[in-house]
Specification:
This protein has 22 helices and 22 strands. It is of the alpha+beta class.
């Protein structure tokens, strides 16, 4: 063992410059795994421990429709049966706020929450001036507001604001509020008022989109039984019951999933480094063949020599893993302080012991696994190599083949462990294997296709082609590492492009950028007149809408309880009625409701004759076909409608076609409903917009004015974070690929130095040798970039279609640009790393040989 350790140290000391790139690659991947897992574990630990604070109660009961007859009494009875239980009601809604001063034209969408005495049961509602929160601050038309609302409305503490038909005095500024969503997206700043003051605002009329809540504080042993009882009680009412335990489980699942997927990204980076370790280890062993033969002549066994290089690989893996720990610590320390606050909770980030152990273990495993197979070639080196050169020929080694299979299985297990899914781990590994095979076949094809160029009269081209097929060529390692790196980067980029394209809200000349919601039927004529007088060129429309819930489907109508397994089909939808298609809609099957008949034979007809058109996504997800009967609960009335058409909706076009269900013309004209109005004000200046919004809110206090420009700012911030995250991951992969390439060039430099010396002795200039390197690396970079970039199209299609369920659009121009960029980058790195070959004098090299 002493011999093994001393030789491993000696070999590492003599060759560390050639191997430094590869344990740095291991370090980057290990650092990514440790940093990502540590950050997510820190957040998850805080959120799980503060689960009660996240809902401000032990149990939260909510519904987006009025409580049914007797429901509140039954809930109250259930709560009274639990000793020590307490209840507080609340209502949440989006509405408009403006200064009470009529001379001001400022308006703002706010998230209004009306609460009762006792709120919150858990967590501290803190004010900016340090005063303790008391419900007395809200009584008699008091309000607490978020600090961002003050400059937006031009008001200060003590001023009054108008909400609906009431005026409220600002009595405090909220610093932290328990029970608020952790989402970065919100319609506007939070405003808290007393629940008793809400009816006077006139905001609870028909069509108001409010969420009614009951917050319950329950002794610990009764939390789960009461939550189950209430869930059974409210299921027919489509109410939602959540306990803090559900929140803990949800947090654990969500963050666990994010942790696993992000760690899988880190593993991909480590595997890229491991692939390079394998390729370079093979070159390194062949470079050391004579040294190995000498050691065997001196009495060394294959087991001892193999142990030397395995210890060396483990040592490099340990060094790389420890460097990864340091990189992770630096990355965590660089997290901006403003990210330490998540909602009402403060998070302290730090290295997680389990993440460190896992990252270091992965670094060691990958180093050992990828070095194992090429190191087994040591067994085939014979002592007679010193006397006979042909003894260096290699035979098929079944031990090496078996080791390759074991390494493959270990990588599948490692990827499955990181993703917490055998299916995902196997898919990732199969994807690597498939792309590796493609790149290997591409390399063989490149060698054969370029073989005729070996007779070219241009010296650099002729020698570059010959170099591709020479023993010890970097062709395979460069194709593999660069191709895989490009594949990963462009695959992630393609998914990003499609996500942004799917969720981005486009504002063009024909798309609305202002929405009016909750317009009552008796307000429609006056509001239409106001809009027509202020916006004569736009001709705004009022669209009738209702809220409806699907309670059955199919020719044989299902009972409501059977919808439990139907997912989103049973949720509440916004529906409309009209007799024509909108510009962003296309009928792809059947006829639109209200069109001339075409009664399918043998198709069931609802007794009331209602017809409905469904969006294509509904048909695909839930298997609803033409002629099926869908049962709706509309305002408590059961409506059966036959599906007469399927529409394709371009959701990126924000006009009037954004409805899953559209009924025939006049279907609900006599039913209570309300209107929404999309308005185009793209050319209007800020003052014109502000005056119109103020006048609408002043005359129609219940109408919510949603300015899309402000929402877009929030959406853009969210996607900026996503883009930066993806760019960081891509930069890590590109850095890894660059280091791998430089390492591959450095390890095989001994061959190039000798070849360059021969060429120079025969009269070749440094410029000609440099041109030869440019041609060689340019070919390899172009081919690797093309295979990786266009192979990423398949990855993007698979993820978009099966994982994210979003439309897929190939970014061909980006793939072409990526191929060109990869070719230029690889050429620059390859020639730059070989600069020493071009500068070295041939005489010293030939003497050394």
């Amino acid at each position: 063992m002493r011999f093994v350790l001393l030789m491993a140290a000696r070999e590492t000391r003599s060759a560390w410059k050639r191997l430094v790139f590869f344990f740095v690659c291991i370090a980057i991947g290990v650092g990514a795994i440790i940093a990502l897992r540590s950050v997510i574990q820190s957040v998850r630990q805080v959120l799980s421990s503060e689960a009660r604070t996240l809902i401000a109660a032990d149990i939260l009961v909510s519904s987006d429709r009025p409580w049914g007859e007797g429901v509140e009494d039954r809930i109250a009875r259930q709560v009274r049966d639990v000793p020590g239980a307490q209840r507080a009601d609340a209502i949440e809604m989006a509405t408009m706020a403006r200064p009470a001063d009529e001379s001001s034209i400022l308006t703002k969408v706010v998230e209004l929450r009306a609460v009762q005495q006792g709120f919150p049961f858990y967590g501290d509602l803190t004010l900016q001036d340090g005063r303790p929160f008391s419900h007395r601050l809200l009584e008699h038309n008091g309000a607490l507001v978020r600090p961002e609302l003050l400059p937006q409305l031009g008001v200060v503490l003590g001023d009054r604001i108008a909400i609906g038909q009431s005026r409220f005095t600002i009595r405090g500024v909220i610093a932290n509020e328990p029970g608020r969503s952790l989402s970065a997206f919100s319609l506007g700043p939070r405003v808290l008022i007393d629940l008793a003051d809400l009816p006077a605002t006139g905001l609870l009329g028909y069509g108001s989109r409010v969420v009614r809540q009951m917050l319950l504080r329950v002794p610990e042993p009764s939390v789960d039984p009461l939550a189950r009882t209430l869930a059974d009680e409210l299921r027919p009412q489509f109410g939602r019951v959540r306990s803090y335990r559900d929140r803990q489980e949800q947090i654990g699942e969500d963050f666990g999933r994010a942790e696993n997927y992000l760690s899988l990204v880190g593993l991909v980076i480590v595997v890229l480094g491991g692939i390079a370790v394998s390729s370079v280890t093979r070159v390194f062993v062949r470079q050391k063949i004579k040294s190995i033969a000498v050691m065997k002549c001196a009495g060394g066994t294959s087991r001892q020599i193999l142990s030397v290089y395995l210890v060396q690989a483990l040592g490099l893996g340990m060094i790389g893993s420890l460097i990864g720990v340091v990189l992770a610590a630096i990355a965590i320390a660089a997290i901006p302080r403003d990210l330490n606050q998540i909602g009402t909770l403060s998070v302290t980030y730090g290295l997680s012991a389990s993440a460190v152990a896992q990252g270091v273990g992965i670094g060691l495993l990958v180093s050992l696994l990828f070095a194992m197979v090429p190191l087994l070639e040591v067994r085939q080196v014979k002592p007679s190599l010193l006397l006979r050169q042909d003894s260096a020929a290699y035979r098929r080694d079944w031990v090496q083949i078996a080791a390759t299979i074991v390494v493959g299985g270990a990588l599948v297990a490692l990827a499955s462990w990181q993703a917490a899914s055998v299916r995902i781990g196997l898919s990732v590994c199969l994807g690597f294997v498939a792309l590796t095979v493609v790149l290997h076949l591409t390399g063989m094809a490149l060698t054969r296709l370029t073989a005729p160029l070996a007779r070219s009269s241009w010296f650099p081209l002729r020698q570059a082609v010959l170099h591709l097929a020479r023993p010890g060529s970097q062709m395979r390692v460069i194709l593999l590492t660069v191709g895989l790196g490009t594949f990963f980067i462009m695959g992630v980029r393609g998914v990003q492009v499609n996500l942004l394209d799917q969720f981005a809200i486009q504002i063009g000349d024909r798309a609305p950028d202002l929405f009016l919601l909750d317009i009552q039927q008796d307000q429609a004529p006056a509001l239409q007149e106001l809009l027509s007088s202020r916006l004569p060129d736009t001709q705004p429309r009022l669209i009738p809408v209702l809220r409806a819930r699907v309670t059955g489907r199919g020719v044989n109508l299902d009972e409501m309880e059977d919808l439990k397994g139907r997912g989103l089909l049973s949720r509440e939808y916004t529906i409309t009625y009209r007799g024509e298609l909108e510009p962003n809609e296309t009928v792809i099957a059947g006829r639109f409701p209200g069109s001339p008949p075409a009664q399918p034979s043998g198709t069931a007809q609802p007794s009331n004759g209602f017809e409905v058109s469904i969006e294509d996504g509904i048909r695909q997800r839930f298997g609803i076909s033409l002629g099926d009967i869908v049962r709706f609960d509309v305002l408590g009335r059961i409506v059966d409608a036959r599906v007469t058409s399927v529409r394709k909706v371009d959701w990126r076009d924000g006009r009037n076609g954004g409805f899953m269900f559209v009924f025939g013309p006049g279907t609900f004209e006599t039913a209570p409903h309300y209107y929404i109005a999309p308005i185009r004000m793209n050319a209007a200046d800020d003052r014109t917009r502000a005056v119109l919004e103020h006048d609408i809110v002043a005359r129609f206090p219940n109408v919510s004015v949603i300015d899309l420009r402000e929402l877009l700012q929030t959406v853009r911030k969210i996607f900026q974070v996503v883009s930066v995250s993806i760019s960081v991951v891509g930069a890590l992969v590109m850095l890894t690929g660059g280091l791998i390439l430089m390492g591959a060039v450095a390890v095989t430099k001994f061959q190039r130095v000798y070849e360059a010396a021969i060429f120079k002795t025969l009269g070749a200039s440094s410029r000609a040798i440099g041109a030869m390197l440019m041609v060689e690396y340019g070919l390899l970079g172009t081919l690797a970039g093309a295979v990786g970039s266009f192979g990423a199209l398949a990855l993007g299609w698979g993820l978009s279609r099966y994982a994210l369920d979003i439309p897929w659009r190939p970014a061909l121009w980006e793939n072409l640009a990526s191929t060109v960029a990869t070719s230029l980058l690889i050429t620059a790195i390859g020639v730059g790393a070989s600069a020493d070959v071009l500068r070295r004098k041939p005489l010293a090299t030939l003497r050394a040989e």
